[in-house]
Design goal:
Shape: rod-shaped
Largest sheet: 2 strands, antiparallel
Strand content: under 5%
Oligomer: single chain
Distance between the termini: 92 Å
Helix content: 40-55%
Number of helices: 9
Strand order of the largest sheet: 1-2
Radius of gyration: 38 Å
Length: 195
């Protein structure tokens, strides 16, 4: 199969070969249908009003080398080696083509973020998902640590114990404890006004 797909057929020549078969079947109308929505599955339909084939004729036509090239053919028969229809119909077909189920991808992503991307074979998205979660984890732990530090500093600044001065970590290194002594604590001032 792989060798037939890679024997030089382009998509255009594969479509032309199927149209040749329609002409050989005495078709006077040939319609080529392309998807109109770019989000639809990519498929091309070729319809004609030719003579058509029975089930047995179709089965025989899809057999490789079904007619010897030496056999005399009709004058309007464009085929020659018995490979055109097979090669044209299998040009883009690959047995490994993957058509993922969207619901399964959603459930896998809900189960473990990034698993849906692996299932869909969109491996390039995985670092984005993992990076997003690593960034979220870092931001959460950093904010939690900062909240804890500010709470401790607030409690230290509000008590009257001179030994607790964790709030000094938030000032520049040139700032001294003595510089703070002259400052009025706005919280204590507000409490005194209420009393």
């Amino acid at each position: 199969m792989g060798s037939l797909r890679s024997m030089g057929y382009t998509f255009e020549s594969a479509v032309a070969d199927v149209i040749d078969n329609s002409i050989s079947a005495h078709a006077s109308i040939i319609k080529i249908l392309f998807p109109t929505n770019p989000l639809d599955s990519i498929a091309v339909g070729i319809m004609d009003n030719g003579d058509g084939m029975t089930d047995n004729e179709l089965f025989e036509a899809m057999r490789y080398g079904c007619m010897a090239s030496e056999i005399e053919r009709k004058q309007d028969d464009l085929g020659r080696f018995g490979l055109g229809m097979k090669a044209a119909s299998r040009k883009s077909w690959r047995p490994s083509d993957f058509n993922p189920d969207p619901m399964r991808a959603v459930w896998l992503s809900a189960l473990f973020p990034g698993l849906g991307q692996i299932y869909n074979h969109r491996y390039w998205k995985l670092p984005i998902v993992v990076g997003g979660y690593v960034g979220l984890f870092y931001a959460t732990t950093w904010n939690s640590r900062m909240l804890s530090d500010y709470q401790r500093a607030y409690l230290d600044i509000m008590d009257s114990d001179p030994g607790t001065n964790s709030y000094m970590d938030f000032f520049s290194s040139s700032y001294r404890e003595e510089d703070r002594q002259g400052m009025v604590n706005p919280c204590i001032e507000a409490e005194e006004r209420l009393l």
